[in-house]
Specification:
The complex is a heterodimer of chains A (about 350) and B (about 100). Chain A is of the alpha/beta class and about 350 residues long. Chain A has two domains: about 45 residues, no CATH class; about 270 residues, Rossmann fold. Chain A is built from 14 helices and ten strands. In chain A, the strands form three sheets. Chain A has a six-stranded mixed beta sheet. The N and C termini of chain B lie far apart (about 35 Å). Classes of the chains: A alpha/beta (about 350), B mainly beta (about 100). Chains A and B meet through helix 1, strand 1, helix 3, helix 10 and helix 11 of A and strand 5, strand 6 and strand 7 of B.
């Protein structure tokens, strides 16, 4: 290697060959996936926070005086969301009362550790924390459920219970809005999955920045256009305290092929993530298509398009020792579909293994 | 070559749950120290540090999409990715975005 090449390699490594695209003063530390701009740490903080602020303002997510719960898992997305929302609330005088809301699924060695992280966040950010547990709400922990039914399908229970638990926790806190840390990568992934499942009801909902305005408590996704890479880099540079490990009962959940596909696309052309979200937003459902009607569960009063909500059906199965009740393909509103559509095994398996967490919009 | 390697975002679980590793990397036979790149380092890490599920870390000869790499706190996308030259005392951080939380 000649000295010229050596010098070039050094300067390339140090990023000294160019300056931050935005301030033109400092060394860049990051290549932004959505714009491909090379920017410094300080400008990164500024554009990251400002873009989220613009999303909040342009979509009118909040009104002054509202009580807002942040769904807090202790993971990177909710931790960064709690931090950034606190900052913006102060800086721009949104006038919000912010709370942390955590769900304890009762998974030993996983949720107890991540909840310790949220308890530290409560102190670090000065946000009151409410924890709601499956044990309190349903009488069953995930540990209990897995003992009964094994690893297959347990994610279905957890996803259904968690979604409802968040609403119940939000009601306890008497909040006006619930925010979650779903990011652009999560939403693009969900668009793909709902297309592949042919789930048109969810497809029309999954790109909405606010959902459930006709339900108990509206949910907002301020990170809808925020890339996961930037959330991780922000947390790293700010040294935010978060917990990351996969759920011990769904060790293969992260292998969902849609997630891997999204990451492969991002590597080739990072803008693809925003493009997929845009495609999801632009889908039009024929007005003649029958959509499930929202009503309430006869048993617990939660919103449901059936007589009983999914959580009550699953709970009845558990309590009766018949855990397979409610598991399997829904039959539609009237339950009159006889045809069992065969899916390729690998696709169905991958979809099933991803039936938890961010999928449950 | 003395390096500090850090694994985060769940990747530490692949390395005996150790987040920070101070390692002494031998240069490949006869290699000039100026020729040691991230490509060599990844190969070394896969061989010497990854104890389980290497597919969570590597895909082909590079990190799996969704794993972020910082060299001295700088995105490796700015410094040439696999061709980034690594020097003595460098700090290399790997963070996964694939694990849930």
């Amino acid at each position: 290697m000649s000295s010229g090449e050596k010098m070039e390699a050094k300067s390339k490594k140090a990023g000294a060959s160019r300056l931050c695209f935005l301030c033109n003063l400092r060394r860049p530390v990051l290549k932004r996936p959505k714009t491909l701009q090379q920017i410094c740490r300080e400008c990164f903080y500024e554009v990251f926070e400002e873009e989220i602020h613009q999303v909040i303002v342009q979509n009118r997510l909040f009104k002054s005086g509202e009580r807002v719960a942040i769904g807090a898992s202790g993971g990177k997305d909710s931790t960064v969301l709690a931090y950034v929302l606190s900052e913006l609330n102060r800086r721009h005088n949104y006038g919000l009362d912010l709370f942390l809301l955590s769900i304890d699924e009762g998974i030993t060695g996983y949720r107890d550790d991540s909840l310790e992280t949220v308890k530290r966040n409560e102190v670090q950010y000065g946000l009151p924390l409410q924890i709601v547990s499956y044990k309190d709400l349903y009488g069953w922990t995930m540990d209990d459920i897995v003992k009964m039914i094994g690893l297959k399908n347990n994610c279905t229970f957890c996803g259904v219970f968690r979604r409802q638990a968040l609403d119940r926790g939000a009601t306890l806190l008497k909040v006006d809005k619930l925010v979650t840390g779903h990011n652009a990568d999560d939403i693009a992934e969900t668009v793909l999955l709902n297309i592949l499942r042919g789930d048109i009801a969810r497809l029309s909902r999954c790109t909405s920045i606010t959902t459930g305005e006709d339900g108990p408590i509206p949910r907002c996704k301020p990170f809808k256009y925020t890339y996961e890479k930037e959330i991780v880099m922000y947390a790293y540079f700010k040294k935010l305290d978060y917990f990351s490990t996969e759920c011990i009962y769904s060790p293969n959940a992260y292998r969902g092929f849609a997630r891997e596909f999204i990451k492969d696309l991002e590597r080739i052309r990072p803008r693809a993530i925003l493009d997929i979200i845009k495609s999801g937003e632009d889908f039009r459902i024929a007005t003649t298509t029958k959509m499930p009607e929202q009503g309430t569960c006869e048993r617990c009063g939660y919103i449901s398009s059936q007589k009983w909500c999914k959580a009550c059906v699953l709970l009845e199965g558990l309590n009766r020792g018949l855990p397979k009740m409610g598991i399997g393909r829904p039959r539609g509103v009237n339950g009159d579909h006889k045809m069992e559509i065969k899916k390729p095994g690998s696709v169905a398996k991958s979809i099933e293994s991803k039936q938890c967490g961010s999928l449950d919009f | 070559m003395q390096l500090t390697l850090e694994f985060g975002g769940g990747l530490e679980l692949l390395c005996d749950s150790e987040k920070i590793h101070k390692v002494n990397v031998d240069l490949p036979n006869g290699a000039d120290s100026d020729d040691f790149t991230m490509k060599h380092l990844l190969s070394w890490v896969r061989t010497n540090l990854i104890k389980e599920r290497p597919e969570m870390f590597m895909k082909g000869d590079t990190v799996r999409p969704g794993v972020l790499v910082l060299v001295n706190d700088c995105d490796w996308e700015l410094s040439g990715q696999l061709d980034t030259v690594i020097e003595d005392k460098d700090v290399v951080v790997f963070i996964s975005t694939l694990h849930g939380g």
